[in-house]
Amino acid sequence: MTEAGFKEEKAARHALDCSGSLTVLKRRLSRMRSTAQPVWARSEIANQLAPRTLIGCWQDVSKADNEAVSLVMGKSYDEVANLVTQAAALPDAPLFRVRGLCSLNSREESWLLLADRLRDDQSATWSDLAVRGLTTDAPQNGPTRCKRNSKSHMESYSETLRTGIAETLALLAAYPAKPGTARPTDSIDVENLVNRILGGNPGWQRWAALRSQLPLLAEAAPGPFLDAVKSELRAKKRLGKVRSHTG
User: Fold this and answer.
1) At residue 176, what are phi and psi to the nearest 5 degrees?
2) Which residues contact residue 57 at a Cβ distance below 8 angstroms, ignoring those fewer than 6 apart?
3) Boundaries of every domain in the chain
4) Is the Cβ–Cβ distance between 90 and 40 less than 8 Å?
5) Are 66 and 72 in contact, with CB atoms under 8 Å apart?
6) Which of 120, 145, 158, 168 is the most exposed place for a label (fewest CB within 10 A)?
7) What residues have CB less than 8 Å from 44, skipping those under 6 apart?
8) How does 112-131 read in b/e, with b if 16+ C-beta sit within 10 Å?
9) CB-CB neighbours of 53 under 10 Å
10) β-strand 101-104 against 57-59: which pairing, if any?
11) What would the pLDDT profile of 206-238 be if each residue is shown by its tens digit?
């Protein structure tokens, strides 16, 4: 793509979001997006897949991930797994499953094609999940001791799901509703969610736990993100003064 004249940053973004699919890349670059919709986006399965755009990706070896996905999609996990199998077998499939990783081929394309099919209750359920999923702090004994294969990790949300949630926040901010239109996702207040996740000086454990998601949260809500950083730094400074006086 760079040899074809695309700037490095744009080429990297397109390549990453297409997950190696030249068909998706062709649609992304088309000047007539409305005439380049995949067949699955015009079929009945599209309504069933719509809640997947809120989740993005997850690890099906994680019980917590499976429960979260089941809750947002309003189906038992067996039904979700069957839907994933059906969708992955479609021509120009919208998603894939490899070694326990379930993911959309293109988060941006799936969002643009399916977000309007979401329901208010699905948006509300996801908002609660977003706060719950991104407010799990790192262990008290330090971020370097957080082992991915530990029992405690397997019982919590995976980094894959947590990153998917943060990506959705960024997508919500990047693609607001057009003037004069209304969507179910309009009820999701991105800035409020980021403030609930990072506001109130949660301490280093929260920031450490979100080290992979922080760039996405900053992209989703720059104002609340910077306010949280400043507030945390002021709190740390005050704590340092107290310790110096009592020491």
Assistant:
1) -70, 165
2) 101, 102, 103, 104, 160, 161, 163, 164
3) 1-36, 37-246
4) yes
5) no
6) 145
7) none
8) bbbbebbeeebbebbbebbe
9) 25
10) antiparallel
11) 999 999 999 999 999 999 999 999 999 998 777
